[in-house]
Amino acid sequence: MIFKIIFLAASLVTSSISYQLQNKAIGTLYRWKQIDFDFPTPQHREQAIQNGEFNQINVIPLGVERWKNRVFVSTPRWKKGIPATLSALPVAAQEESPLLAPFPNWDWHNAGNCTGFTSVFRMSIDHCGIMWALDSGQVEAFETPRQLCPPTLYAINLETDTVVGRFPIPSEFVLQNSLITNIIVDSRDAECRDLHVYIADAWRFGLIVFRMSDAAFWRFSHYTFYPEPLLSNYTLHGLNYQWSDGLFGMSLGQFYRGDRPLYYHSMSSSLEFVVKTSVIRDPSRVNNAVDEFKLLGESRGPKGQVSASAVDRNGVMFFNLISLDSIGCWDTRDEYKNSNLNIVAHNNVTMIFPNDLRIDHEVPQIVWIITNRLPMYQFNLIDPNDYNYRVMYMDPVSAVQNTVCQLA
Questions:
Q1: What are the φ and ψ backbone dihedral angles of 132, each rounded to 5 degrees?
Q2: How is residue 118 annotated by DSSP?
Q3: Is the pTM of this model over 0.90?
Q4: Quick one: signal sequence residues (predicted)?
Q5: Which stretch of DSSP H or E encloses residue 322?
Q6: Taking the CB of residue 391, how many other CB atoms lie within 10 A of it?
């Protein structure tokens, strides 16, 4: 392994989950006080600052993915002054706070008429090396929102660094005030032909499905996609705020008898749900599948809000506990109850608001996490003299040792 492992001792934070905290292998690949970009020349950077295209305090990293020797980071255009919205960095870090290199190149971030990237939220890479990037099409969501382009799914070949597909989400599946925010790829055959993409609408509580074979979209709605009212009130490091985000985190379980489960949850919720992917992959079942979406088990408790989650090859789910500065685990072969959940990483400085979490396709696998202090960013409380943003990594096998998630 090329990574230097850093061991963190975690302290328990009050919750309903039963935790047995251990020292875990987790490390920081990159960290930034503020984000900067690799402009073509210093003159280009200065010009971007002068004309308002680059305002450093407004840039926040949101999504993370890894393919081979690169890590990819998204920087959505939530405020004015974000010159690029998707970047690449080397896995082998040469410096602590590198400049972001716009991906595939600057041209894709300066294009007009919806021919390039507008505001990329998150990415999901299939095992064939195609990155599926979710572009909201909206800018300045935290200021005066403007929908410049339709929400769009991009397919990018990471062997050639070329965009090989652009699929705008049809308007009938994007409702007024939709927040198309998260994405997960379900590819099953060796050549990724039987591929579907699942897309979460956090504000209008829907699940959008894309089928690659014929570029078709459809949408599911369900009452389990809604937030819990009491979990919509957050307190984080003295900051109290309210979010009512619905369906957000999604993770795919292992194959069994030709099917696999989709685990999902609202961000403002303490509950986990599950549906068979055979249900959502069949558009004819949209209107008669209400009983197919099921509660998985117990509540995670009053601070059990989770952003992203992912399941590794061993069947262990890892999930970001955003109100606890922590990452949790659950062995998907066990019942979903508090005594079967553990915290595997916790730090109230480096892990303030773990936002995105992905598991790569490498052998062995690595868990990748973005921490970004999002509530502080939203309310203009970011201290530019502090380290605010991190790309972190974790060995999933080492992380679960001596916990209930450890493989038998």
A1: -100, 110
A2: S
A3: yes
A4: 1-18
A5: none
A6: 24
Q: Which long-range contacts (CB under 8 A, 24 or more apart) does 383-387 make?
A: 384/33, 384/34, 384/56, 384/57, 385/33, 386/33, 387/31, 387/32, 387/33, 387/350
The model's confidence at residue 126, banded by pLDDT at 50, 70 and 90, is: very high
DSSP bridge partners of 327: 320, 345
pLDDT tens track for 316-335? 999 999 999 999 999 999 99
Residue 80, judged by CB atoms within 10 A of its CB (0-12, 13-18, 19+), counts as middle
Rounded Cα distance between 89 and 102, Å, is 9
Burial per residue of 194-220, b for 16 or more beta-carbon CB atoms within 10 angstroms, e otherwise: ebbbbbbbbbbbbbbbbebeeeebbbb
pLDDT at 189: 87
Residue 183 zone, left/alpha/beta (φ > 0; ψ -120 to 50; rest): beta
- Determine the length of the chain: 408
CB 317 within 8 A of CB 311: yes
217 neighbors 173 (Cβ within 8 angstroms)? yes
Q: What's 385's DSSP letter?
A: T
Indicate the pairing of strand 367-371 with strand 247-252: unpaired
Contact 346, 324 (CB under 8 A): yes
Burial 53-66 (b: 16+ CB within 10 A, else e): bbeeebbbbbbbbb
Q: Which residues of 104-142 are buried (b: 16+ CB within 10 A; e: fewer)?
A: bebebbeeeeeebbbbbbbbbbbebebbbbbbbbbbbbb
The pair of structure tokens assigned to 203 is 């504000």
pLDDT score for 254: 92
Check whether 18 has a pLDDT greater than 50: no
Q: Is residue 1 very low, low, confident or very high in pLDDT (cuts 50, 70, 90)?
A: very low
- Helix and strand numbers (H, E) in the chain are 5, 29
Check residue 96 and give left, alpha or beta (phi > 0: left; psi -120 to 50: alpha): alpha
Beta strands in 57-135 (DSSP E): 64-67, 70-74, 86-90, 101-102, 120-125, 130-135
- Taking 50 as the threshold, does the pLDDT of residue 68 lie above it? yes
Q: Is-contact 370 353, C-beta < 8 A?
A: no
Whether 65 and 134 have beta carbons less than 8 Å apart is answered as no
In the sheet with 70-74, reading across from the earlier edge strand, the strands are 64-67, 70-74, 86-90, 101-102
* 3-state per-residue secondary structure call for 81-102: CCCCCEEEEECCCCCCCCCEEE
Q: How far apart are CA 313 and CA 134, in angstroms?
A: 24
**C-alpha–C-alpha distance, residues 177 and 76, integer Å:** 17
